[in-house]
């Protein structure tokens, strides 16, 4: 009974805590061990599946593939369990290293537990609050940028067909796929606009015909319709992502302030 308890403890508590402590240690072997664990689980699952296929006289390849997927699924389930264990340890104020070894770290091992929440400390660190603030600002900036691109123009507009006449390849220090020049005609006059080469689901090439929106009173003010549609879709995505980060940041701030208030109350008492 005692051995079974030890096995269950390592499988569901001490094992996940030890895995987290190892991955968080910064050891160069951590990434290698992660890949090796994935390969091992897949290989074991494939081997068991192949044996089942031979025993049942079915397709060995199909059975091995299903076994590999099951092996990977078991690893993913165990990793999710590890996240739950780590969250519980954070709430309790017990470091994963202490849980894995069964004793409080001391000496040179004490440094491994630095940065972990101790008993009586706030549940939410200020670093988490700052993280969500930075993410909100970054995603909010992208939302503002795409919202400006998709903003309707003042005054009546019309749509005509334009042709890609030039492709500008990006420089080695630039990201993206470059830009293109689109030429279109309004009332016998030709105009040229420059836009991104990859407006949404399209990848523009020389000679391709694209829809162009322009202001009736200012035909030179034109833009690719596909770029506007893509920006409108992206603006919605970045808005909800930034709003989600803002909500999580607010909850984190409330948790941080509540923890500070409780800590100050205990010290005052």
Quick rundown:
With about 270 residues, the protein is α+β, with helices and mostly antiparallel strands. The protein has a 5-stranded antiparallel β-sheet with strand order 3-2-1-4-5. A hairpin with a 2-residue loop joins strand 2 and strand 3.
Question: What are the key terms here?
Answer:
6 helices, five-stranded antiparallel β-sheet, alpha+beta, 269 residues
Describe what you observe in this structure:
The chain is α+β, with helices and mostly antiparallel strands and 269 residues long. It is 59% helix and 16% strand. The protein has helices at 2-23, 29-56, 60-92, 96-101, 126-150, 225-268, and strands at 157-168, 179-186, 189-196, 209-215, 218-224. The protein has a five-stranded antiparallel sheet with strand order 3-2-1-4-5. The longest helix has 44 residues, at 225-268. The two termini are 45 Å apart.
Number of helices: 6
Low-confidence stretches: none
By DSSP, the count of extended strands is 5
The general outline is flat
Q: Class by helix and strand content?
A: alpha+beta
Provide the residue-averaged pLDDT.
Answer: 83
Percent in helix: 55-70%
Largest sheet: 5 strands, antiparallel
The portion of residues forming beta strands comes to 15-25%
Order of helices and strands: HHHHHEEEEEH
Radius of gyration from the CA trace?
Answer: 29 Å
Oligomerization state: single chain
Provide the spatial order of strands within the biggest beta sheet: 3-2-1-4-5
Q: How far is the first residue's CA from the last residue's CA?
A: 45 Å
